[in-house]
Amino acid sequence: MKTLSPFILGALLMTQVGLAPAQTESSQTVEHKVNDFDPSDGLELAEGFLKDGKYIDAGKLAQRVLQSDPKNQRAHLVLGKAYFGVGALDLAQKQADTLLSLDSSVPEYHLLNGMVKMFSEDYDSAIAELNKAAELSDVPAEQASILNTLVLAYHRSGQPEMALATCVTAVEEHPEEPQLFLSCSRLYREKEDFKNALAVAQAGLEKHPEFASLYASVALAEKGLGHDEESEKAFQALKERNPDLAKALREVLDGKKSDKADYQIWVE
């Protein structure tokens, strides 16, 4: 079974699926929650575990629901996300297949399937599934999230121009999603088009001044343009809002190679 890079996995889960890094909790508390729950609210608890990064606990609860209700789609989705969260792609794929056999009209089922395909490096299938998910979705926030995942799929498949074109279109259609501005700026920087990288990051900040990572994008774009003073101003603005992220940015600005720092700047 394939194990995902923790940095890429974290990026995908936080920005696309609404999950977050694991938080600690006493084993006694977890055991009480898992063993003493009412099946009627078990899935709500399981979804809470997912958001806290407690994938194993979420999966246990979903499995218990499925024992009494094998076709419960919400439980299959939770279980699929839980398997994906621990890198069990083959098991996550089984849940995605089950969901689509039960109802192929739900965008989130195609999204899960697309993510599993992407990290299994079946990029053609992943892109097809993500396009299908975007086509089916009529919820703007959900569609924006799906499109951002599609951008990642194109990027990982070695199609940077398609990734960028998709991202630019998505920003125009969904300016309410700050992550799209961040992704576009990153893609422009990768092709050393720092002028457009700066423009899209600044446009994002005008709409989303609270989204700290965009200050990092501005700082990196200004650095690429040779504007050290402006880059430092953006760094200081980030430091005021998110000191931990600013620490990661400092490493990148100073030319230190750090996958962790690079990941933080893109997704936090």
What's the number of extended β-strand segments?
A: 0
Category by helix and strand content: mainly alpha
H and E string: HHHHHHHHHHHHHHHH
Individual helix count: 16
| Beta-strand residue fraction | under 5%
Reported CATH architecture of the largest domain: Alpha Horseshoe
CATH homologous superfamily annotation of the largest domain = Tetratricopeptide repeat domain
Unreliable stretches (pLDDT < 50, length at least 5) are: 1-34
Helicity range of the residues?
A: over 70%
Number of domains as seen in the coordinates: 2
CATH topology of the largest domain: Serine Threonine Protein Phosphatase 5, Tetratricopeptide repeat
Cα-atom radius of gyration: 20 Å
What characteristic shape results from the CA principal axes?
Answer: elongated
What characterizes the major β-sheet? none
End-to-end Cα distance: 28 Å
Name of the level-1 CATH class of the largest domain = Mainly Alpha
- What's the overall average pLDDT, rounded? 86
